[in-house]
Amino acid sequence: MDNDFKSIGTFLKEKLKKFEYTPKEYEYGVVKSCADEIARIDGLPRCRYGELLEFGGSEYGIALELRENAVDAVLLNKSGTVVPGEMVSQTGRVAQVCVGDGLLGRIIDPIGRPLDGLGAVPSDEFRPLESHAPTIMQRTGVNTPLETGILAIDSMIPIGRGQRELIIGDRQTGKTSIALTAIINQKKDDVFCVYCAIGQKASSIAQVAAKLKSVGALDNTVIVASTADDCASMQYLTPYSGCAIAEKFMRDGRDALIVYDDLSKHAAAYRAMSLLLRRPSGREAYPGDVFYLHSRLLERSAKLSDEYGGGSLTALPIVETMSGDISAYIPTNVISITDGQIYLESELFNAGIRPAINVGLSVSRVGRSAQYKAMSGISGNLRLDLAQYRDTAIFAQFGADIDESTASLLRRGERLTELLKQARDIVFPLSRQVAVLLSYNNNHFDGIDLNKVAAARDGLLERLESSIGDTMRSIDGSGELSENDMNILTQASGAFFEELKNAKH
Ligand code: ATP
Ligand code: MG
Q1: What is residue 174's DSSP assignment?
Q2: CATH for 395-504, options being 3.10.50.40, 1.20.150.20, 3.40.50.620, 3.90.1150.10
Q3: Does any ligand 1 atom lie closer than 6 A to the CB of residue 303?
């Protein structure tokens, strides 16, 4: 008996000797109140701004308002399962999203959950939604063109890889269509695309996905979507999430294009969150940091130097205006952040000029360095031609006497406007754009009736494709227009218009 006690005593003593006690510290907060997707939490004095919080093990939220011994967080779900008294713990990390090639062709929500019913997203790499923009030393100048396939843009408002070009206009002016055409045109260039749908109708997102799929462009595109009935926090996170996914491509030394459709809805979602968080409101009821909201997002686009892989991230943010007012708060902010804007007008759209680009108010501050040599050599005079045409057309409306030079100016302007019209989803490769502009410069379209200009253009392109297809491919391949190619192109175009003229007589 005695022996037994002794052995148990030694056994326990030995166990105690080996026992290592490393205390673990857990810090919990308690939900004080929860309404309108905002949870007010008592405790968590060491919580950090933007940290992901866990509510009862199933719900998540992001800490956005830090006070002494209290935190306000936005919830990421609308489920309504968070109740007062619930325990909240810190996760020690910020919100993150899965990234990588496995996402291509998929539709996901901002925290990486699939929305396309195709099962879990195959990816084991994650990136934080918010990260620092590339530093000055990591960047280099924008010097490679990003072709949109839209003649009016590639010729007069060229976009370079790594640039941020705003698409701005009223509702239903073709903003999304321009961005989609640009995405469709990247298929051949190995530029990976991310389309961020922020607070849009689910039906619009489905249409975009169907469109991209039908032309085979979904394979190199990721759609990050939050719908209009998602909570404000999800809409707020969408562009950051898309940017994180696109950044991965850039950091891997590849080229990426991201479309934010649209930042007006993003700002409105942030305003809703800020008002619920009881932050003081400023102009148009937006909080004071709404500029930073977009500047930190758009600064993440860059062209990296060769030392850092040489990748690029081009951004096409979209902003919706009310009655063409570009001096409202969000439009002016985003205009000042970006490197240029494509301004779309309802009047032009309704007059049948589509894409409805107002060339006078549209600019690209990167300029000719981001344009193929073949294009920059022949597109220099277009802006001037259009500006002169617009000015003169106003006077001509009053029935003023028109001399021959003015009449010719009007004639050319009308035809150029006609040539720049482009159906939705039709992309023009460089060679076709060059061919059209070369014929315009050679005054070939001047003798053609206005209503037949578009048909003549399409006929010309078809003819060139069949007769000098090799030359067209060589222009597309090199981006240059050699003297030899130029001669072949001029000759073939000349012959086509000669035939057209003879057929008329
Ligand atoms: P919203 O403000 O609703 O987002 P939006 O400015 O994005 O609209 P889109 O949805 O791109 O505009 O286009 C509006 C309509 O105009 C669509 O029905 C589209 O088919 C048509 N459209 C756009 N671009 C063209 C074009 N180049 N040629 C013919 N139709 C076009
Ligand atoms: Mg749209």
Answers
A1: S
A2: 1.20.150.20
A3: no
The overall longest dimension of the chain from CA atoms, in Å, is: 128
Is pLDDT above 60 for 1?
Answer: no
Topology, domain 28-94: Elongation Factor Tu (Ef-tu); domain 3 (2.40.30)
- pLDDT tops 80 at residue 415: yes
The pLDDT score that the predictor gives to residue 402 is 79
Average pLDDT over residues 166-193: 95
| Strand pairing class (312-320; 255-261) | parallel
- Closest CA to ligand 1's atom 13: 174
pTM of the model: 0.92
Q: Is 160 in the pocket of ligand 1 (CB under 6 A)?
A: no
Instruction: Please choose, from the candidates 177, 128, 178, 185, the residue with its C-alpha nearest in 3D space to the C-alpha of residue 300.
Output: 128
Ligand 1 atom closest to Cα of 179? 11
- Which residues carry out catalysis? 365
As a whole number, the mean pLDDT across the chain is 93
**In the prediction, which pLDDT does 400 show?**
66
As its CATH architecture, domain 161-367 has 3-Layer(aba) Sandwich (3.40)
- The residue whose two tokens read 């060679």 is 431
Q: Is the dihedral of CA 360, 363, 369, 375 positive or negative?
A: negative
Domains of the chain, by residue range, sit at 28-94, 161-367, 395-504
Q: Are 161-367 and 395-504 the same fold in CATH?
A: no
Whether 181 lines ligand 1, by a CB cut-off of 6 Å, is no
Tell how far the Cα of 174 is from the centroid of ligand 2, in angstroms: 7
- Split at pLDDT 50, 70, 90, the class of 208 is very high
